[in-house]
Automatic annotation (TrEMBL):
<dbReference type="Pfam" id="PF08241">
    <property type="entry name" value="Methyltransf_11"/>
</dbReference>
<feature type="domain" description="Methyltransferase type 11">
    <location>
        <begin position="9"/>
        <end position="82"/>
    </location>
</feature>
<dbReference type="InterPro" id="IPR029063">
    <property type="entry name" value="SAM-dependent_MTases_sf"/>
</dbReference>
<dbReference type="GO" id="GO:0008757">
    <property type="term" value="F:S-adenosylmethionine-dependent methyltransferase activity"/>
</dbReference>
<protein>
    <submittedName>
        <fullName>MET27 protein</fullName>
    </submittedName>
</protein>
<dbReference type="InterPro" id="IPR013216">
    <property type="entry name" value="Methyltransf_11"/>
</dbReference>
Amino acid sequence: QLHRRGFRCLDGVDGSAGMLERARSTGLYQELRLCVLGREPLPAPAEHYDAVTVVGALGEGQVPSTALPELLRVTKPGGFLCLTTRSNPSNLRYKAELEAALGQLEQRGAWQKLLAQEVEYWERATSEEESAQGTGYISGVVYIYQKCPVPNLEEG
């Protein structure tokens, strides 16, 4: 979808070599690198990207919420971060931790929340317990933040 909307310079990281090979087969990415987000720094210089997205990886047992400052590090001032997480019962504890970390960064002036939108049919449920009211789907949330510009330091 991003490519169809004019985004042409796309890089990707994943902790799985197999997923990187799948991404490589699409021909959409300029760079693909192996990186376990939350355990090691992203393979990019500071303030490198206009936008950073994390879709399908912010969840229990996956990318920890402690990785948020690293996402901010590689985003240009004024750039955007689009993050997602699931709202299914087994992810509610992680979602609460994530939202607390998101809020702390906003309170510190690192970024500004532009959107937090619930999506009812986020992805297919893998069990009846995870299904939202028996729909066969779980819900999720899309968060969009804008990194705050670095304040100008006045002399004197």
